[in-house]
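yo

u said u wanted the structure for the complex thing, so here. seqs first:
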Amino acid sequence: MTDTTSTTLDPRLRRQSRLRLSPAVLLLGLAVLLALLSAIRVLTGEGNLTSSGTVNAALGLAVPIGMAGLGGLWAERAGVVNIGLEGMLILGTWFGAWAGFTWGPWAGVLAGVMGGALGGLLHAVATVSFGVDHIISGVAIILLAQGATRYLSAEIFTGLEGGGSTQSPRLGDIGTLTVAGVSDAARSVEARGWFLVSDLAAVVGGLTTQVSLLTILAVALIPLSYYLLWRTAFGLRLRACGENPVAAESLGIDVYRMKYVAVVASGAFAGLGGAFLSIVAASIYREGQTGGRGFIGLAAMIFGNWRPGGLAAGAALFGYTDALQLRGGQSVHALLLLVVVLLVAAAGWSALRRRPRAAAVAAAFAVAVLVWYLSVDAVPGPFTSFAPHLTTLLVLSLAAQRLRMPAADGQAYRRGQGA
Amino acid sequence: VSGRLRLGALALTLAAPALAVAVALLMSTVTLVVAGNPPLETFRSMLDYGVQPRSMALTLNTGTYYYLSALAVAIGFRMNMFNIGVDGQYRLAAFCAAAVGGAVTLPGPLRILLVLVVAVLVGALWAGIAGVLKATRGVSEVISTIMLNAIATGLVAYLLTEYGTLEGNDISTTPLPESAHFPSLPFPGTSQTVYGFVVVAALAGVGYAVLLNRTRFGFDLRATGISETAAVASGVDVRRMVVVAMLLSGGMAGLVGMPILLGAAYSYGVDFPAGIGFTGIAIALVGRNSPVGIALGALLFAFLDQSSQILDLEGIAREIVLIMQGTIVLSVVVAYELVRRYRLVQEQRQVGRALAGDERAGRPEGAPA
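structre next:
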């Protein structure tokens, strides 16, 4: 991947002057967002916007995207671009289903993780040891993963009860967790339909009712990754390999080993996401089940500026639109109003900061979306399905200068090249 | 000396793909043995079936669109750009071309011409978005083309349900009339015909070779791919090159669906083949972006696809060839990298020797070149 043309010093200076996302600011932002959603719900009568069912579904849909994104984060923070995430996700779905069918769901999770890690190992061998271009290796791994799983399905799942050349038999369940008292209380408050209070209750209800244990594990991995990558010496070394491998090497860091660890971990995360898809989300393996979620995960990571919190937000956003889509085109339609409000706010903010061009662009988009909202009754399904991709494209083209990827991301590195 | 070197270089160039095919055969042998199938007999029955006239005609048909797809990817590669979006480009292009071709009333040849023009334009425009984003906003074309693929998928699905016609259970565009079918060619020894589009594909290959190797533009494009700074220094407008290369790549991608549309399907429906763009990436890698190498790679992949059809009858999963193809790609890129490193070391040694022999230079042996 080619780097942007901006100088290295510039974005850092800019970042210091920018508002830092402290927990308080973040909570305030979330509260404002919820209030907006609540207002739109009351206005349009579209209860699905903030129902506990939507929140619960969004959480489940966000997990595979988030895990793929986390995989991307680990690899790219160590300087290896991992387009092969999609392939590792596929390996995770297949191995998860196979072991899940053979030995039970938790064995399936383990096998999915290992399947993904195997894909990661392959990527590491090709890119780190042999210096193959990262994108090329990634594409090759996707092809290989697709081919291998199709072969394995035809060879192993055919003839089993409910299985076939493109799908596995049905799989056993992983347990879910419901916080008994909280869940019931939240749902009864939700049913009242009060402004903001019921919406908050719906979020609480959605997050405490029948949440898969694997979801909890997956969500916990995000702060854990943050801790490991940003708060330990190991993480500092790993990130150093992504920023400046020659400098890292001069400090005695075994760059190859770090990259190997990062890319294998990357595959393992994607494999976990895949296992979640086949074992928890669908209870069955189907060919093409990943549906490009590896790429959406990558998009979430870029969207989140190569940071764990950002990628979690990206995954949550994409999971949320997915969940709304499942509940029908009207829900997404109501969401357009939120987009209008946010665009108007962006226009106002830009105008305040004396950036008339940006303000005009945002305002124009706001008007366009408003016209769209008023002229149709429902957003067609396909539009929702590519909403994450379109969002990423827009974010990249409008804010590429604000995003900062690891400095040596995607670049070839050979041991001793700086000497 | 140069004669020997050239021979050695040729041997090295061929060594990589040969090694890759060998590794792929080994991998699939292991896979077959593990699954309890006899590898040698499997390969023999594939070979026997693959060289039958009918199979060869079908191989040529598949090879036709594989070739076009790989050419489209290769144009980007020559400029050090990854057009991962060929898949979306050809599907959107084929849909639009089929829709326009089915809607207008024109005499056959003109209608074919219109279909081709629409396909090339749509492919070019869709790829052009990625080109413009890269040139003006610095957005990596890898990410933007991946996103554009998904958007194309959704867009085609939407347009098809909105404006397609229902035939039985399947939605498709209005079929092209018989006068607008691209003439097919006979193949000796079988009633199975070959897409006439194979001629167009061959011409596209010639055009690719001439454009890149015999024109100023091609030189600039390759120069930009090898060293952007050197290209800038020699007066190349890199931003313009990025956009133009993407347009060319996308235009070629627009042609990918045409053999199928004009030679077999005659309309764009939900079952229009997808994924050819990704196969194209694999073939461009195997063929090292050379027009002849890509042709061989396309035929190899098409042959594997075709010859595996027999395996169903023998109770062996024919998906084994997917493992072969995947292994070929991965091992070929590793092999090329090893060859490149080997050459680099050889060159360094040579320079080192030359410098050591040159007394005026007075440098120690093995000094960095």
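The CA atoms of residues 41 and 247 of chain A lie 53 Å apart. The first helix of chain A runs from residue 9 to 17.
cya
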